[in-house]
Write a structure and sequence with these properties.
With about 210 residues, this protein is an alpha/beta fold. It has two domains: about 120 residues, P-loop containing nucleotide triphosphate hydrolases (Rossmann fold, 3-Layer(aba) Sandwich), CATH 3.40.50.300; about 60 residues, no CATH class. The protein is globular, with a radius of gyration of 18 Å. Helix content is about 50%, strand content about 10%. Helix 2 packs across helix 5. It starts with a strand and ends in a 17-residue tail after the last helix. The chain has a five-stranded parallel β-sheet with strand order 2-3-1-4-5, sandwiched between helices. The protein has nine helices and five strands.
Length: about 210
């Protein structure tokens, strides 16, 4: 197994890069998808969130009401800490379980983690950063995701800065150009990934820290 992290700011096109790597044979361990999986109806995580914040966080279909949760944590750092203490251990365990399921293979495993810079992870063989300018991020969020410019800039500001993400990057994908340019970069990225040494079959990813 080869194990590398992938990150990028909101609106950078990280999901597109992840999909292109999957098309070339990579196994994607998507942190955002895992968050959704561990919060599914009937899950212990969803039950714990409802116990902590009330039934207001459950919608009519029995699913997590994400807009309500976003409102709760927007201006309440303590609420965000409480939610993270419930969600992060479950996400970390599921992520590590998916890594362990791949460790005896020769696959390239990509940990797709939006906040990898904010929450560094040990045991990776490299860090890929999908990079665009802040102005490009804003333009894409406004054009394709219905954000107002102020909301887009506020969300970007809550993440690590562009310079902070680029620091320590082993491979940078410039996603500010056209699709042929991106295709060429992903080809070079795939060549680099497949040149990395295989991890030993007894590789043990770090377990999530227990919270009290």
């Amino acid at each position: 197994m080869i194990l590398v992290g992938l990150t990028g700011g909101i609106g950078s096109g990280k999901t597109t890069v992840s999909e292109m790597l999957a098309a070339r044979g990579a196994i994607i361990v998507d942190a955002d998808q895992i968050v959704r999986d561990v919060q599914r109806p009937g899950s212990p995580v969803l039950a714990a969130l409802a116990e902590a914040f009330g039934d207001q966080v459950i919608d009519a279909n029995g699913e997590l009401d994400r807009p309500v949760v976003a409102q709760i944590v927007f201006s309440d750092p303590d609420a965000l800490k409480k939610i993270n203490a419930i969600v992060h251990p479950a996400v970390g365990k599921e992520m590590n379980d998916r890594i362990l399921a791949q460790r005896s293979t020769n696959n390239v495993v990509i940990l797709d983690i939006p906040l990898l810079t904010e929450n560094p992870r040990e045991g990776l063989q490299g860090k890929i950063v999908v990079d665009v300018s802040v102005e490009t991020q804003v333009a894409r969020l406004v054009a394709h995701r219905g954000f107002s410019e102020d909301d887009a800039r506020a969300r970007i500001a809550r993440q690590s800065s562009r310079d902070e993400r680029l620091k320590g990057a082993d491979f940078v994908v410039d996603n500010s150009g056209d699709r042929p340019s991106l295709d060429a970069q992903i080809d070079r990225l795939w060549s680099w990934l497949t040149s990395l040494p295989q991890l030993p079959p007894d590789y043990e990813p770090p377990r999530p820290k227990k919270t009290t």
